[in-house]
Specification:
By secondary structure, the chain is of the alpha/beta class. The chain is built from four helices and seven strands; from the N terminus they run βαβαββααβββ. It has a seven-stranded mixed sheet, covered by helices on one side.
C-alpha cells in the first residue's frame, strides 16, 4: 500500500503539498476526496488546480455538481461535488463515465456514489487536529 501524509495546515504549504501529491500520484488523474465538511477539500483542490495551470476563478460545484476548468496543457480539470446526489444513476445521466475516461484531471468531493465507476484512483483524506490539517493519500488500484 502506497501512502503519503502532507502538512497543509496553512495556505502557504498548499503549493508544495500539491506538487508532492501529484508526483506521488504519477499517472493517476482521478482523486477522490473523502473528508468531513469544513476540512478544506475545496480549498486544497483549488491549490491543486492552480499548480496544474488553471487560471480561472474557481468555486465549489455544490449546486452545479461539476465545474470544468481549462489549462494551457493537453488536459482540463473537472471538479465534482457529489454531496447533493442520491443515486449513482444520477452520475450515469451526467455522462460521468466520459469525464473519467479521458486524459483530464478529475477531483471528486463526496465520492461514495462514484466508486462503482472507478477502478483506480488516489484516495485523499484530510485530518483536522486542532488548527492543523494533514492530507493523507493512498493509491487504490
Amino acid at each position: 500500500m502506497l501512502t503519503i501524509r502532507l502538512d497543509i495546515s496553512s495556505i502557504e504549504l498548499h503549493q508544495k503539498a500539491a506538487e508532492q501529491l501529484l508526483v506521488f500520484a504519477k499517472a493517476e488523474k482521478i482523486f477522490l476526496f473523502d473528508s468531513p465538511m469544513g476540512s478544506g477539500k475545496t480549498t486544497f483542490i483549488k491549490s491543486l488546480s492552480t499548480y496544474l495551470g488553471v487560471t480561472d476563478s474557481m468555486s465549489s460545484p455544490t449546486y452545479g455538481i461539476v465545474n470544468e476548468y481549462f489549462t494551457n496543457a493537453a488536459f482540463n480539470v473537472f471538479h465534482f461535488d457529489l454531496y447533493r446526489l442520491n443515486h449513482s444513476e444520477e452520475l450515469f445521466d451526467l455522462g460521468f463515465e466520459e469525464y473519467i475516461s479521458g486524459n483530464d484531471y478529475v477531483f471528486i468531493e463526496w465520492p461514495e456514489l462514484a466508486l462503482t465507476f472507478i477502478n483506480s484512483y488516489i484516495l485523499v483524506k484530510i485530518e483536522v487536529n486542532n488548527n492543523n490539517r494533514y492530507l493523507c493519500a493512498e493509491i487504490i488500484k
